[in-house]
Design a protein that fits this description.
The chain is an alpha+beta fold. The chain has 1 helix and 8 strands. The protein is globular and about 60 Å long.
């Protein structure tokens, strides 16, 4: 008979207790995701995406582009996408937990031989 595996569940508040050891600690619906610090190739790709996204959005004050960003959906989700785009009307001084509109989140995934870019876009049309 198979025994179920008990997976611990965490909250956003629990993340404060994890060590600052260079790893990235994120939560997705209470499940802990731990990834190592990004390498050079990964960071170059993220920086290029930020550059190309920033030019039209920042110049027009339509949006802000940052990397990494933080998406907080209390109590059990906190993600740190490599690139985050949000509306220009949100002040740069706003705490991440208070940013409730996210136009685009980009995660650059890496393996030994390839880079995969994952896009998450909760808003169907940011131009309106």
């Amino acid at each position: 008979m198979a025994m179920p595996v008990m997976v611990p569940q965490y909250t956003v508040d629990d993340l404060n207790g994890f060590p600052e050891d260079g790893n990235r600690y994120e939560l997705l619906d209470g499940m802990l995701l731990v990834t190592s610090a990004p390498g050079g190739r990964h960071q170059i790709i993220a920086a290029r995406l930020i550059y190309y996204l920033s030019e039209p959005l920042v110049r027009s004050n339509l949006g802000k582009v940052t990397g990494p960003g933080v998406i907080v959906l209390r109590p059990r989700t906190q993600l740190e996408p490599d690139v985050l785009v949000f509306p220009g009307h949100i002040s740069a001084r706003t705490e991440w937990v208070d940013v409730s509109e996210h136009w685009l989140a980009v995660e650059v995934l890496r393996s030994r031989n390839e880079i995969t870019i994952v896009l998450w876009c909760p808003v169907p049309d940011i131009a309106t």
